[in-house]
Amino acid sequence: MAQTISSGEPKWLYHFDTLESTNNYAMRLIDDGMAQHGQGIWADRQLKGKGQRGNTWQDHPGNLKFSLIVVPAKSLQTPFRLSMLVAATLVQYLRIILPVNCQIAVKWPNDLYVNDKKACGLLIENVFRGAQWAFAVIGIGLNVNQTEFSGDLRQKATSMSLASGSRSFDLLEIITDLRHGILNKFLAAETLNNELLLRDYNRFLYKRNCPVAFRERLSGRLFEADVAGVDEDGRLLLRLPGGLQSFAYGSLEWLLQED
Ligand code: BTN
Questions:
Q1: Residue 15's pLDDT is what?
Q2: Nearest-angstrom CA–CA distance, 68 and 98
Q3: Which of 86, 117, 123, 175 to mutate to test ligand 1, by most ligand atoms within 8 A of the CB atom?
Q4: Shortest CA distance to 205 belongs to which of 136, 106, 110, 78?
Q5: Which residues in the chain come in under a pLDDT of 70?
Q6: Which residue of 19, 155, 188, 231 is 20 to 30 Å from 257, comparing CA positions?
Q7: Residue 51 near ligand 1, beta carbon < 6 Å
Q8: pLDDT digits (tens, 9 = 90+) for 19-29
């Protein structure tokens, strides 16, 4: 895990050639009392990249593996609000960077979809000290310069490069822009009404008002419903024959055609 020291890189960034996981490194900095708001950790390669629900995150050298340490603003109140803030920042960023005909959306709760395929996964880990939400580590796995996916992923995954006719992107520029976007939204969250976050997140929600097939993880029940939105507790609202029903994070699996 040699740290890459390059004169052009900012002081807030720890850049490594190889790490097990940028999120784990950030957590270690927090445990050792060395963490600061706005510090970033970037690895060219991750040996044990972590995904949602204990999954592994596959590594590709052209993609971004980055973690940002933040001290959550009091006004954010809940981890889901932070997750909405980060997802909205990413959608807004990709909408600026990628061609206008790309469809970019947040697949509840934490995936970014470009043209109906996954381009980015977020893993946000929180550190509470007593009742105090002391730190959050925002882990971003963004497919940037990968142009070929093998096996299953061919149908399910895409990258910024694929979405933009094989353009190649500078990872440090992306890191700098995303950090700036997230930290700015943090400042805004101090003063702005939190409802705006929810409004943005819902505006960007994947398959909103469209029918989707789901599997309920606990019961195995299969059903189809229209995606109506997400509520302020981060629950997915689905339109079912009996009316709106809300589902907690992790309780549903999306059964998409591409899957
Ligand atoms: C997902 O399952 O979709 C979330 C994937 C998150 C991957 C990123 S890569 C940078 C950071 N470090 C990790 O070990 N995981 C996150």
A1: 97
A2: 23
A3: 123
A4: 106
A5: 1-2, 4-7, 191-193, 257-259
A6: 231
A7: yes
A8: 999 999 999 99
Look-up of token digits 């093998």 = 150
Pick from 44, 52, 57 the residue to mutate for probing ligand 1's pocket: most ligand atoms within 8 Å of its CB. Answer: 57
* Residue nearest to ligand 1 atom 11, measured at CA: 139
Q: Per DSSP, what are the bridge partners of residue 135?
A: 127
What tens digit of pLDDT does each residue of 46-89 get? 999 999 989 999 999 999 999 999 999 888 888 999 999 999 99
Please state, in angstroms and rounded to a whole number, the distance separating the CA atoms of residues 42 and 15: 5
Placement of tokens 């606990």 in the chain: 218
- Report the atom number in ligand 1 closest to the C-alpha of 50: 14
Spatial separation of the C-alpha atoms in residues 45 and 211, rounded to whole Å: 38
